[in-house]
């Protein structure tokens, strides 16, 4: 593509914050300390997890950068950044989460394949850009279209990013056309993150943001948008990011038997404590994040200080001082919710958190029942061990 290239090696990587936990160097995959996540409702760009499949693309000439919108549409177009910026700008606060968040904990049950994420492969940002539904109107696709006159039912996003899983080809993914053409779904072509231009790690100059859906569908470094009849046939749609039962292994797996993962399930994580932690006082504040996919709000977060025998309900908020009310117009429907509970704990205990969303979906108790060979969607109860007194660790 003119103006944007994918390097063949990792010699021109951007700078990153030194506090990030690096899970893979090439390609670079890293997450912040869990305590950093709850320090700010909007995650600073430096502390937003980095998920990459190859060397970071480089913009050679922004004036020549363009995106092709084509396929089963009436009026295919090439859009330059100047064209995109002429469309109405929207800001959407949305949480992105890698489907592999908390994979490391799942791997303790049985080995899984994938980047070893702890609990911070997630972040919440204010994304600025244009609605995909407005872009689709430019090529003759009205809002809320299920199928184009030429038979297009899916919208495929193709990146400049080259990856080994695609045999050196581009990263790509798709979403249904009805979602892409729905203004209420808030799917963006984003050129800003937290009020500033995207940086290279997060997709500069243009990326897709699909709120409420696993991060793998929010394609960075966008090259083209294709309206197609079937869902994307790329590796990350057909041979990855699918949820299999615990009985499936690498010998009996049948990828075509499962649909690609889209909405992420209800999730919550304690961020004020490490997996094993020592506290000085018996009265402590437990805090963390909760989130659910598909725009579903968080109905409640339950905290147990005795390993799940008894429970108390935590308070919930998005902005400090403003009570969070699920599905209320004043709250960000695509964003995470912070929770907090002040509790008195015994000397040594297991603290547990579980969230319930507005559809009454609740996190499963045990990771064993949702174990899958790719280690995705670990939404089991989050548990930490707490000791009161001086550390002997």
From TrEMBL:
Residues 260-386 form the Moybdenum cofactor oxidoreductase dimerisation domain. Keywords: Metal-binding, Molybdenum, Oxidoreductase. Its cofactor is Mo-molybdopterin. It is an enzyme of class 1 (oxidoreductase). This is Sulfite oxidase. Residues 1-23 are annotated as: Disordered. Pathway: Energy metabolism; sulfur metabolism; Sulfur metabolism. Residues 1-12 have a biased composition (Polar residues). One of its GO terms (biological process) is sulfur compound metabolic process. Its EC number is 1.8.3.1.
């Amino acid at each position: 593509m003119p103006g944007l290239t994918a390097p063949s090696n990792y010699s021109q990587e951007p700078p990153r914050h030194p506090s990030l936990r690096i899970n893979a160097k090439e390609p670079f995959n890293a997450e912040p300390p869990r305590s950093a996540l709850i320090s700010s409702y909007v995650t600073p760009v430096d502390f937003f997890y980095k998920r990459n499949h190859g060397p970071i693309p480089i913009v050679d000439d922004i004036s020549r950068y363009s995106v092709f919108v084509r396929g089963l549409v009436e009026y295919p177009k090439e859009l330059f950044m100047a064209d995109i910026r002429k469309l109405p700008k929207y800001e959407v606060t949305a949480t992105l989460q890698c489907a592999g968040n908390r994979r490391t904990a799942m791997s303790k049950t049985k080995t899984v394949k994938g980047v070893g994420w702890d609990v911070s492969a997630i972040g919440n940002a204010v994304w600025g850009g244009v609605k995909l539904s407005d872009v689709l109107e430019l090529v003759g696709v009205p809002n809320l279209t299920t199928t184009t006159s030429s038979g297009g039912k899916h919208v495929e996003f193709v990146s400049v990013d080259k990856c080994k899983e695609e045999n050196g080809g581009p990263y790509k993914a798709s979403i249904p056309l009805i979602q892409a053409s729905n203004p209420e779904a808030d799917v963006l072509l984003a050129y800003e993150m937290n009020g500033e231009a995207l940086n290279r790690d997060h997709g500069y100059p243009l990326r897709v943001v699909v709120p409420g859906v696993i991060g793998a569908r929010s394609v960075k470094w966008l090259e083209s948008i294709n309206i197609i009849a079937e869902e994307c046939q790329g590796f990350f749609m057909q041979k990855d990011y699918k949820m299999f039962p615990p009985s499936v292994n690498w010998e009996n797996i049948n990828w075509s038997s499962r649909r690609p993962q889209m909405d992420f399930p209800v999730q919550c994580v304690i961020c004020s404590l490490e997996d094993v932690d020592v506290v000085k006082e018996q009265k402590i504040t437990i805090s963390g994040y909760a989130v659910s996919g598909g725009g579903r709000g968080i109905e409640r977060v339950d905290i147990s200080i005795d390993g799940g025998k008894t429970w108390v309900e935590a308070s919930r908020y998005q902005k400090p001082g403003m009570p969070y009310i699920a599905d209320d117009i004043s709250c960000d429907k695509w964003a995470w919710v912070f929770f907090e509970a002040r509790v008195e704990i015994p000397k040594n205990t297991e603290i547990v958190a579980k969230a319930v969303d507005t559809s009454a979906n609740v996190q499963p108790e045990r990771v064993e029942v949702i174990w899958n060979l790719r280690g995705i969607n670990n939404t089991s109860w989050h548990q930490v061990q707490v000791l009161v007194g001086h550390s002997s660790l």
